[in-house]
Amino acid sequence: MYYTKKRKIKKGPIIFIAVVIFIIILIIVCINLYKHYTSFEYKLGEAGYNEKEIKEILKFDNKYIEYAIENKYEDDFIPLLKQKYFIWKNYDRYIEYINDVYGDKKVDYEKVVSLVNVGADNDPYTHTKKTDMDKEYAILVNKYNSLPEKYAPDDIVEMSNWYAYPDNRIRQTVYDAFKEMSEGAKESGYTLIVNSSYRSYEEQKEIYDDYERNRGKEYADKYAARPDFSEHQTGLSLDIFSPGANMSNFADTETYKWLKDNSYKYGFILRYPLGKEDITGYNYEAWHYRYLGKELAKKVYDSGLTYDEYYAYYLDK
Ligand SMILES: [Zn+2]
Questions:
Q1: Neighbours of 299 (CB within 10 A)
Q2: Which helix (H) or strand (E) segment is 156 a member of?
Q3: Does 32 lie in the same domain as 163?
Q4: Which of 47, 72, 87, 268 could form a disulfide bond with 263, CB atoms 3.0-4.6 angstroms apart?
Q5: Distance, CA 219 to ligand 1 centroid (Å)?
Q6: In this predicted model, what pLDDT tens digit does every residue of 114-139 receive, in sequence order?
Q7: Are residues 215 and 243 in the same domain?
Q8: Cα(287) to centroid(ligand 1), Å
Q9: What is the per-residue pLDDT for 75?
């Protein structure tokens, strides 16, 4: 006969395993809770952002998300963040400008970003700095960015009467580019003639002082650049017309239409476009072209931005 021994199940190890599993689950739960409460999503929610806004903010780098968490919720934050040319270091100035200019009115965020990026939230000739000359043909000269004191390029050459009215001088590289553009224009049936080009510090000073003496500083600042702040002093700018045209009618000519859309192929851009006066700080000038080199001129042309805006967003880093 067999005696069946009842197998005794040992409870000890089972309890042990159950406890271990329980502890593991508990640890996982704790880690997840910890992760949740320390997550950017949670913190942004706590800071007052809604789900849609949180999704937007999370697209940015960590340091910006942290900025969003630390800085209390503001109504302008998300609309600003969505602007294509939003620059983080300008954030406080955007807010300040909005408060100063718009008050309770509907805010044009695109315009705010453009103006602040180029420095036009400040008055002209205030908060000025010296432009970065290491950028060579890509330097920025406007009412906030000046040339080094009494700057003069060292490769200025005389332009022939074939291309310019008498007494025009320009940097060699720009002259070569203009000659090429002139050929291109000719092939399309247009003639280009330069009527203003390089202006020395002394010449620019004379023009400015003359205006100031006769009509006052406000008038002078409106119609002439201060010395060291003029693009003509860079030796990279040309005022281009068709023969016989002048400042009042050049914008209506076919030559202008050709120049506006083809000059970038030769390294030039229209520097002071229509409708961008508050960004460039200059009235619309259909005749004023700035040399940037072919590669950069194409990028600026394709961007549809003024050079001031392009520089602020893409080059000033
Ligand atoms: Zn000009």
A1: 16
A2: strand 156-158
A3: no
A4: 268
A5: 17
A6: 999 999 999 999 999 999 999 999 99
A7: yes
A8: 7
A9: 81
In this structure, what CATH number is given to the domain that contains residue 228? 3.30.1380.10
Domain count for the chain, please give it: 3
Structure token digits, residue 269? 């851009």
Quick check: helix, strand or coil at residue 250? helix
Name the strand (E) or helix (H) holding 295: helix 294-303
* pLDDT tens-digit readout, 27-70: 999 999 999 888 999 999 998 888 988 988 898 888 778 888 88
Name the least confident of 48-52, 107-111, 167-171: 48-52
In whole angstroms, give the CA distance from residue 42 to residue 146.
47
Q: What is the mean pLDDT of the chain?
A: 93
Considering the domain architecture, whether residues 151 and 282 belong to the same structural domain is answered as yes
**Burial of 246: CB neighbours in 10 Å, binned 0-12, 13-18, 19+:** exposed
CA distance 45 to 256: 54
Query: How many whole angstroms from 83 Cα to the centroid of ligand 1?
Result: 31
- Shared domain check, 98 and 237: no
Instruction: Catalogue the active-site residues.
Output: 285
The verdict on 47 and 148 lying in the same domain is no
pLDDT over 80 (residue 198): yes
Report CA(135)–ligand 1 centroid distance (Å): 21
Distance CA 199, CA 181 (A): 22
- pLDDT band per the 50, 70, 90 thresholds, residue 151: very high
Tokens of 72: 């209390």
